[in-house]
Amino acid sequence: METVSQPKDMKEVVGxxxxxxxxxxxxxxxxxxxxxxxxxxxxKFRKHRLAVIGGIVVIIYYFVAIFADxxxxxxxxxYIAEYAFAxxxxxxxxxxxxxxxxxxxxxxxxDPVSFKKVWTLDETKVIPVGLFVHGEPYSVLGIIPTDIHxxxxxxxxxxxxxxxxxxxxxxxxxxxxFSSRISLSISIVSVVLSLTLGITLGGVSxxxxxxxxxxxxxxxxxxxxxxxxxxxxxxxxxxxxDWSITLVYFIITLLLAxxxxxxxxxxxRGRFLSLREEDFVLAARLDGAKPRRLIFRHMMPSIYxxxxxxxxxxxxxxxxxxxxxxxxxxxxxxxxxxxGVQLQEAQKINVIATYPWVMYPALAVIVIxxxxxxxxxxxxxxxxxx
Length: 386
Known about the structure:
58% of the residues lie in helices and 13% in strands. The protein is α+β, with helices and mostly antiparallel strands and 386 residues long. It has 2 domains: 76-170, no CATH class; 175-382, MetI-like (MetI-like fold, Orthogonal Bundle). It has a 4-stranded antiparallel β-sheet.
């Protein structure tokens, strides 16, 4: 009777194919156990598709705002008076059977009743359009002089209004791009000021307690009880007409920051009240850590994720606030360029009905606010990776 010999090493039969299937989950579990909080947040955040898309949109907005001179066909103040309220020109990409982008020129007639210009696109007039074309000179970040623009007419000076013109014959599309600089930066500056006040006062309130806590909480309640809009209207009425745009910008930013720090301060205070009894905080105190080091070195890292999510959801509110204030005429004023200033032309219903393209800046506001909200929702969910 023949005997079947057993292999000397069982790995020859079952070892090799089973090792990847067994070891892969083990490696994943080990990586999950040793991963830092930020890595866990990133793993969970990237699963939130809307949040990722929102983050990409936000990055694109700020990138375009930084290099607005390159992306805008013309400067924010460039105008051709004869093209006031000219309608948008659609870009055609094929001409004579080949790829050759162009737009059609304008022609107009006078309405016999109202004597207004009635614009139409003249298909017999072709204005070639190109990428990386020469145009108005500018300096990249104020350092490198150039005249290259991402898109524009190949012949400098030709009418090019992809989103129409405003009442002065200025390009709505170019002004939207330049407006993003102020509308987006004013929210970031306000958030930084709110963050500083909120973390400092909220942290001191939650860490010190007692009389200091009561005083700071009464300050928060007083700040929240003061109506912001009447104060801004009063300040706008008192601001001299000859004040510079920079000074008005600073005042609006400061007011938005003073109105927005209270919510963050309360969140930080609540977290600090729960953290100050933790063992690592008591150990730091026994080690002689000063209050500032105790707050920023030991306690703040525990709530970074919540602060990031809170700030991400606060920024769109500040963007809307600046746009609304400028739209009402109590915020930034011309010649400043912001989305709210652009929308001042849309205050009359007859203007919107006749020239609907003046509402395009509102579309830019809607997109960035939705992007920030999606991003904030994703960060808020990722802030608790466990």
